[in-house]
């Protein structure tokens, strides 16, 4: 009996200790992410560079001018917390005073000019603003770019198309506005119905580039969770309701939902204010527009979306895209579609493998908008 009590006491003690350790790790990890983690290693390293630069200035001012103190100051603004940055700036100010007093004693050395002081002060003020901004948004003092890289990779992974059975080819190309790494266009896709059905949703969030990236990331995760969990005809109404609940100032989006039977080639396109799809009919060699004019997502509750049906026969190609590819201030939608189909005709004989990216380059290379193109081909 006593042994059982001791075992229970020891087990309870270990549970409490494990709980304290987990809470401590969780708290330190959150503090570190918010920028409250220790930065003393970087601070000490940068503080040591200040006397080194000052000594170099006093020894060879022509090769190491007083303005060289901006180098550790810039690094401090990018790496340190605001409190540590102020300490760094104090050390730089002391170094400038020492340089000025020592150089004034020797006429053969270049004097510390007011311009040097202004340059160091201006760079220091800029670095402090950057450090305060990082602290406010919660970017860690080092490896802050990892978070942005992870966000970009999450969007890329969520936009990955599933493998298709033999006889089918799919490819997706996306190019953000202005050469940025983030885009308001995204794709979510899944094989449903025991793999016999391909569901793809191409969405264009209002805005472009970085302005729309955060909303695109949130919506891509939500749409990915809805896709396959609901019957196809319920997806866009559920997506519309989700978007309305966010209550964003720019809360609308366009979307087109493809439901493709991989056995028969029959498909349905359900559009929410999105440009129509284009189908190349192998029998005629012509492109046909496929799509209905459904309402935008996130505009009003109770919106209804009507499907358009079609069939992909062997040799047919289905092309879905966002408006940045075919529409601009200088070009009407119909003109952009004609240009896109004209460029796509060049791939009819050779096949559309690898054509998505080249079509974006040929049709809308210098357009300042997000562009996305999806190709589904039946060999």
UniProtKB/TrEMBL annotation:
Q: Which Gene3D superfamilies match?
A: PPM-type phosphatase domain (3.60.40.10)
What parts of the sequence cross the membrane? 40-62, 69-97, 117-133
In this protein, which residues make up the domain named PPM-type phosphatase? 169-378
At the top level, the lineage of the source is Bacteria
Arranged from A to Z, the UniProt key words for this protein are: Hydrolase, Membrane, Transmembrane, Transmembrane helix
Fetch the InterPro entries from UniProt.
Bact_Sigma-Reg (IPR052016), PPM-type-like_dom_sf (IPR036457), PPM-type_phosphatase-like_dom (IPR001932)
Pfam families on file: SpoIIE
Q: What is this protein called?
A: Serine/threonine-protein phosphatase
